[in-house]
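To illustrate the input format used throughout this study, we show a single complete record. The first block contains the structure-token representation of the backbone; no residue identities are included at this stage. The design step must infer an amino acid for every position from geometry alone.
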């Protein structure tokens, strides 16, 4: 029969274990573990097997998630990574990772790889393709007037911060003269400014500026002339929430739903941020994201006579309508022009939302806000937008 060790014999082992635990904690006190040891090993194996590169979409230079992966030797950092390669977005309990292939691969291959991660890494709550952002309007019709008469509204005491999540903004344009223009954020390349190289975002921001007052306008650049992806939108939403803006205008959309984007919309809502979203120009009711999500104000477009524009989306998920036909607004380089679509209808509603917040305060609920918008407008009597109110 084996003799059990006594207390005195066990003391050295106890002290050794205590010391090991102490030094492990002291090395990085308070560090939160995001992955189990098994998950780290499996992430490393899949990353190297499929040559996948991970980055933190929070753009945090001191990312604890990446530090944990790096310590476990689960990251690869090839110098020749093409950042244009389509990848996957992994939603964690807190935060989002972009998983990109070193070499361009098909959506089918990406989905197969996503299945592999999902089966063995429980910390990845959801994996989805980094889909392409749809920019809504084509080239503007320029009005070659360098110094037109623009109705610049008076300043107000209560400042409302509006984030224009789009192609950037030419913040030096004269239309923004009575508003405070913040530097903003370029989700495609944070080292660069959020200047508009497309003309869409400046047009959208100009509509907000010309129809409201007392604003801080924050450009959040998610697309450039080469396009943009969902991962850029996630970065921009994360930035907007951190900046504690009051309103986010999204005159863009995705054709398929996104787990990560819906989660961020809900987070913004919980933080008291109102999101005004273009309903899209696909001429159908299938859904457009983020406009189709519960906690956005989805805006359809009508013409000057109050009729639905042929390309405007519609459906039970659309909340309100506004004029989106031939809207005159700013373009980069102190120019002006007209554009049409739900991209132009949404900022008209954003401007009115800003006015309501200035009048009734920031604590107004989403339902109260929608009721006030609906009380002021004209009800559409028939057609695919029947029952919606046109915001004046």
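Output of the design step:
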């Amino acid at each position: 029969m084996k003799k059990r060790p006594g207390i005195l014999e066990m003391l050295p082992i106890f002290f050794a274990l205590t010391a090991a635990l102490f030094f492990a904690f002291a090395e990085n006190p308070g560090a939160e573990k995001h992955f189990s040891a098994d998950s780290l090993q499996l992430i490393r194996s899949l990353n190297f097997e499929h040559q996948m590169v991970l980055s933190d979409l929070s753009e945090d230079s001191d990312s604890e998630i990446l530090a944990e992966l790096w310590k476990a030797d689960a990251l690869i950092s090839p110098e020749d990574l093409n950042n244009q390669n389509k990848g996957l977005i992994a939603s964690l309990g807190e935060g989002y990772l972009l998983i990109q292939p070193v070499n361009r691969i098909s959506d089918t291959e990406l989905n197969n790889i996503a299945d592999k991660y999902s089966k063995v890494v429980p910390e990845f709550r959801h994996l989805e393709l980094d889909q392409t952002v749809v920019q809504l309007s084509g080239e503007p019709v320029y009005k070659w007037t360098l110094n037109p008469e623009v109705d610049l509204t008076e300043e107000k005491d209560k400042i409302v911060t509006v984030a224009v999540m789009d192609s950037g903004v030419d913040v030096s344009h004269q239309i923004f003269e009575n508003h405070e223009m913040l530097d903003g954020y370029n989700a495609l390349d944070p080292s660069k400014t959020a200047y508009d190289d497309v003309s869409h975002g400046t047009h959208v921001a100009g509509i907000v500026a010309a129809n409201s007052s007392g604003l801080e306008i924050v450009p959040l650049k998610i697309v450039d002339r080469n396009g943009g992806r969902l991962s850029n939108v996630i970065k921009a939403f994360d930035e907007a929430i951190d900046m504690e803006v009051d309103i986010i205008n999204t005159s863009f959309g995705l054709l398929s739903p996104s787990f990560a984007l819906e989660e961020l919309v809900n987070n913004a809502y919980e933080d008291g941020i109102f999101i005004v979203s273009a309903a899209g120009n696909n001429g159908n009711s299938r859904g457009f994201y983020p406009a189709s999500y519960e906690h956005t104000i989805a805006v359809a477009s009508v013409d000057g006579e109050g009729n639905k524009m042929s390309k405007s989306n519609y459906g039970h998920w659309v909340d309100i309508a506004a004029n989106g036909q031939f809207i005159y607004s700013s373009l980069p380089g102190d120019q002006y022009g007209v554009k049409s679509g739900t991209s132009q209808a949404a900022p008209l509603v954003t401007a009115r939302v800003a006015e309501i917040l200035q009048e009734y305060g920031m604590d107004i609920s989403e339902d109260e806000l929608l009721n006030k918008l609906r009380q002021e407008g004209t009800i559409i009597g028939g057609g695919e937008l029947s029952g919606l109110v046109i915001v004046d």
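Structural context for interpreting the output: The mean pLDDT is 88. The longest helix spans residues 7-27.
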